[in-house]
Amino acid sequence: MNLTKLHYFLFSKLVIAWIAGVRFLSVSDDSAKTTVSLSWFNQNPFRSIFWAVLGMAAELSTGILLMKAIKNNKVKASMLVTQNQGFFYKKAVGKIVFTCEVGDRIKQLFEQLIQDNEPKKIELVSNGYNEQGELVCTFKFEWSLKLKTT
What CATH number corresponds to the domain at position 111? Predict the structure, then answer.
C-alpha cells in the first residue's frame, strides 16, 4: 500500500474525507498516521476543525490497518464500526496528526478470526496531536469483523 494508491482510494471511495482535507501520512502493518489541517471548508463557527472531520481522520487511521490485514491474510471480510467515542482536550487548529499503533492486536485478531470463523470485535484507538505534539483528541472505535463466505 503506497501513499499514491491510498490517496487515490481516499479520493475515489471517501470523497467527503478527501474534500475535508484528510490525508494519509504513513501506513505499515503496525501503525497508521493520517492528517487533517484546519481550512475554511472543515472549520466550525469557533475557527477550529469540526469534530466530525477529526473523526473521519481518526477512523481512517484505524480502518486502514484492518483493510491492510485483510489484504495480507488473503481473506474476504466485512468490517463495520459498531461503536465510537470521542474525547476532546484542546482546540483543533493547524495540522492534526492521528496515530493508531495496534499491529500486534490486529495480527492476533485475524489469527482468531480465521481459526474460529466467527465474527470478532476489536477496539482501536487513534490519538490526534497538534503541531506542538500536544494531545488534542482521542477517538475509540469498536470494529466488528466477519469472514465472508464465498
Answer: 3.10.129.10
Domain extent at residue 14: 3-147
What is the torsional sign of CA 33, 12, 110, 116?
positive
Cα gap 55→73, rounded to integer Å: 27
- Model confidence over 122-136: pLDDT tens digits? 999 999 999 999 999
Here the cell at position 62 is 484505524
How far apart CA 144 and CA 113 sit, in angstroms, is 11
What is the pTM (predicted TM-score) of this model? 0.93
- Domain count of the fold of the chain: 1
CA dist 73 to 64, 69, 76, 112, Å? 14, 6, 9, 12
